[in-house]
Specification:
Number of strands of chain A: 14
Radius of gyration of chain A: 26 Å
CATH topology of the largest domain in chain A: D-Maltodextrin-Binding Protein, domain 2
Helix content of chain A: 40-55%
Distance between the termini of chain B: 43 Å
Order of helices and strands of chain B: HHHHHHHHHHHHHH
Strand content of chain A: 5-15%
Structural class of chain B: mainly alpha
Distance between the termini of chain A: 80 Å
CATH architecture of the largest domain in chain B: Orthogonal Bundle
Radius of gyration of chain B: 27 Å
CATH class of the largest domain in chain A: Alpha Beta
CATH class of the largest domain in chain B: Mainly Alpha
Number of helices of chain A: 20
CATH superfamily of the largest domain in chain A: Periplasmic binding protein-like II
Number of helices of chain B: 14
CATH superfamily of the largest domain in chain B: MetI-like
Shape of chain A: globular
Largest sheet of chain A: 5 strands, mixed
Strand content of chain B: under 5%
Largest interface: A-B, 37 and 37 residues
Oligomer: heterodimer
Number of strands of chain B: 0
Number of domains of chain B: 2
Strand order of the largest sheet of chain A: 2-1-3-13-6
């Protein structure tokens, strides 16, 4: 017994020594740079490949032991906003943080969390940002964020093999053509297969911003956000579009969308849909999860009322990085942002991995990608770039307004119920519009309602 | 000396005894307080302080921490979705509570009747859902009812029928929440009522049988009155739990379609995550829900005044 205890004690000491030795040896490659300043970077979690790519970038950055910077990356999933708030309240705000375009003003610029970047990033870099992007990340002529990418919220995907079987030669560009194609596709599909996938529920709130802009030349409220504009012909047309899709049985009455980044694109690739609307991120899913279908899935601008290819058909979503105003090392943080995101060759890796489902936010990156992109994805890249070019940015008026509009479109799906009676359709549209108008007017009378801050 | 005088504080002997008694009593009280202290500290940290903070925050702006009066409450009372969510949750709670009590009670009666191996196995089987989280329950039922490829859809398609979308129909969506909620609580509720049933003295039934009472008479005149306190307990816990339902509606329908399955807690959860809404309205709403649930429980207790079984 005594011998066993002695052996155990010796083994423990040996194990501890070996562990210490291993840790010390490991430090020679990946250890912390002595005397370096630690820059903290809070990032939101995205697709697995995207998170891994960011981790690789940081690892690569930290390999340089002479720059005086050690980058400490923290990736958060659902708790990202909470983590950021908590860090700020505890006086430990990260030096760099990610933020989406639609939250930039309300959550970073207005509360004073973001530092102006014009001086930190340098005039050349600032001039490289696309003009439409610059306008949405600026406040009083100062840029407050470095854009990472642009994601058009609405693209049109179709299965070429299904089109061929139905005798369809090209992707539809107007609603009229879309319904004609649906009529041709429907007889070729089995039970449980549908012609067209459209977002359902709350997703319709953001997914239809581009359609609203395209059909009505404005969103649900005026620029000052103090007048509701829903009671117009454009919204009647949009309601009619949704009604027709459901009434003719082209669009599934239930949610078959899958979830997250796979929404709608997975059912398309798994033979449940012949065509679908979804964001540009669908390309990433095709590339990573259904690589065999890259040549069978086409991607184009969504069909619209007029079919005008030069009009807006989507919103540009996406993310930026900001440098904290409270950071004591803003210059070093800017150095990190330049190395990770402003260097064209480094930044382009992200777009390669994404299968070009995101559009570039800078002129130099746009040119670089056009020259260097993988030819397999050239069509996707050109479709996404074209849509992104004409897209508006996500509105940051009260989300409740978008939900009220979404409810109006959702009502079409619930009420259509197979009825093709014109009078019933018209009454359904008018009733839903009236409810939407009332809801938005009520939202606007609330004392908590914020009208558009004239911040540019 | 008269008894009254002997036990009077004017009597020096009694006063001395009384002092000793009190010292003795206090000594025991201190040990009781010491034992209560950990619980008191935990309740203070996790209940009282958060409640006081919640009261303050309900009247503050989330970002600036400035006092904004009734603004957060005003936002909630102006929201049609929040107000209608109470109607939704009341309907679902009423159905879930009634169905759970009835099914659990009758299944507990069956278990009592099968007081053998079958009964033992049945008890274990029905209790299994209690180990499953609401989120997991939603996923299990989702696999059954999923419109895109759930079991029911597959069966419908194989029979040449059109699939039914349970979560996108205003009538079926509530059922898609009610059924898993009943399923998840059925086991524990049944076992509580079963425990109540086996506690009813057998002599009652023997006496009733001698008097010629049949099964239904014994049920209505002995079993149900004897179970009164168990029913009150179940009623209160079911109402309290279901009025706060969130997980299953969030996972199954997300509050849709057209907000017909939106519950107050789900609305508040969504509000907190939406930075364009006054986020402290979530706290104001939580206080409102607390008041409403407290009031409903108070009414339940008052209406069905709880009392002990006469023989207990």
């Amino acid at each position: 017994m005594k011998g066993t205890l002695k052996f155990a004690a010796k083994a423990s000491v040996l194990l501890a020594l070996v562990s210490v030795g291993l840790i010390s040896c490991g430090g020679s490659d990946d250890g912390v740079e002595q005397g370096a300043t630690t820059i903290t970077f809070y990032a939101n979690s995205f697709e697995t490949w995207s998170n891994e790519h960011l981790q690789d970038l940081v690892k690569e950055f930290n390999k340089d032991k002479t720059d005086g910077i050690q980058l400490n990356l923290k990736i958060f999933s659902d708790a990202y906003d909470d983590a950021l708030t908590s860090a700020r309240e505890n006086g430990a705000a990260p030096d760099i943080f990610m933020i989406s375009y639609n939250n930039l003003y309300n959550n970073a610029i207005k509360p004073g969390y973001a530092a102006p970047l014009d001086d930190l990033m340098g005039a050349d870099n600032i001039a490289d940002i696309l003009d439409n992007v610059k306008s949405t990340i600026s406040y009083k002529n100062q840029v407050y964020a470095w854009p990472l990418m642009l994601e058009p919220s609405s693209m049109f995907y179709y299965r070429k093999s299904y089109f061929e079987k139905a005798g369809i030669t090209e992707a539809p560009t107007t609603w009229a053509q879309l319904w004609e194609d649906c009529a041709k596709l429907k007889p070729t599909l089995n039970k449980g297969q549908y012609c067209l996938g459209i977002q359902t529920g709350a997703a319709l709130a953001w997914a239809t911003w581009g359609m609203q802009q395209n059909t009505c030349d404005h969103l649900a409220v005026n620029d000052k956000w103090d007048k509701c504009l829903v009671n117009e012909q454009g919204y009647r047309d949009l309601d009619g579009f949704f009604y027709d899709g459901y009434a003719n049985g082209y669009v599934p009455t239930g949610d078959i969308s899958g979830s997250g980044y796979n929404a709608l694109i997975a059912p398309l690739c798994e033979d449940k849909l012949a065509m679908t609307f979804t964001g540009s991120w669908g390309i990433g899913t095709i590339k990573n999860d259904y690589p065999d279908l890259v040549n069978d899935v086409g991607c184009a601008m969504i069909p619209t009322l007029s079919g005008d290819a030069g009009k807006c058909s989507a919103t540009n979503g996406g993310w930026n990085v900001c440098i904290s105003k409270s950071s004591a090392h803003q210059d070093l943080a800017a150095k990190v942002v330049k190395a990770l995101y402003a260097d064209t060759a480094t930044a382009s890796k992200y777009f390669d991995l994404a299968g070009y489902c995101k559009a570039a936010p800078t002129k130099s990156l746009q040119t670089y990608l056009a020259q260097h992109s993988d030819t397999t994805y050239k069509d996707y890249l050109s479709a996404v770039s074209a849509v992104s070019k004409n897209a508006i940015f996500e509105p940051h008026y009260s989300w409740d307004i978008s939900v009220a509009v979404e409810t109006m479109f959702e009502t079409m799906g619930i009420k259509a119920d197979g009825s093709k009676d014109a009078a019933y359709k018209s009454a359904t549209i008018e009733s839903a519009m009236s409810t939407c108008l009332d809801s938005i007017n009520k939202i606007m009378t609330s004392s908590t309602y914020v009208t558009n801050p004239d911040y540019r | 000396m008269e008894n009254a005088d002997r036990f009077s504080l004017d009597n020096p002997l009694y006063r001395l005894d009384h002092k000793r008694d009190n010292r003795f009593r206090y000594r025991h009280q201190w040990s009781a307080y010491a034992m209560l202290l950990p619980a008191f500290i935990l309740v203070t940290i996790f209940v009282i302080i958060p409640l006081v903070m919640a009261l303050f925050r309900a009247f503050q702006d989330y970002n600036t921490k400035k006092f904004v009066g009734w603004t957060n409450f005003e936002y909630l009372f102006q929201s049609d979705v929040f107000l209608s969510s109470f109607g939704n949750v009341l309907i679902m709670t009423a159905i879930i509570t009634a169905a759970t009590l009835i099914f659990s009670f009758f299944f507990a009666l069956v278990l009592k009747y099968f007081d053998n191996k079958f009964g033992e196995i049945a008890k274990i089987i029905i209790y299994v859902p209690c180990f499953i989280a609401g989120i997991a329950t939603s996923i299990i039922f989702g696999l059954l009812t999923n419109y895109g490829g759930g079991l029911l859809t597959s069966i419908a398609i194989s029979l040449g029928l059109d699939p039914v979308s349970f979560t996108d129909s205003t009538t079926l969506a509530r059922m898609a929440i009610i059924i898993p909620t009943i399923w998840i609580g059925f086991g524990s509720n049944t076992l509580v009522l079963y425990a109540g049933l086996i506690n009813i003295p057998k002599e009652y039934y023997e006496a009733a049988s001698i008097d010629g009472a049949n099964w239904s008479q014994r049920l209505w005149d002995i079993t149900i009155p004897s179970m009164r306190n168990y029913f009150v307990l179940q009623l209160v816990s079911l109402i309290t739990g279901n009025m706060q339902m969130m997980e299953i509606p969030l996972m199954v329908t997300g509050g849709g379609p057209l907000n017909t399955t939106m519950t107050p807690v789900l609305f508040l959860y969504n509000s907190y995550r939406d930075t364009s809404r006054p986020q402290n309205a979530t706290i104001a709403g939580a206080l409102i829900i607390m008041l409403i649930i407290g009031s409903i429980n108070w009414i339940v207790f008052k209406t069905i005044s709880s009392r002990r079984s006469e023989d207990a």
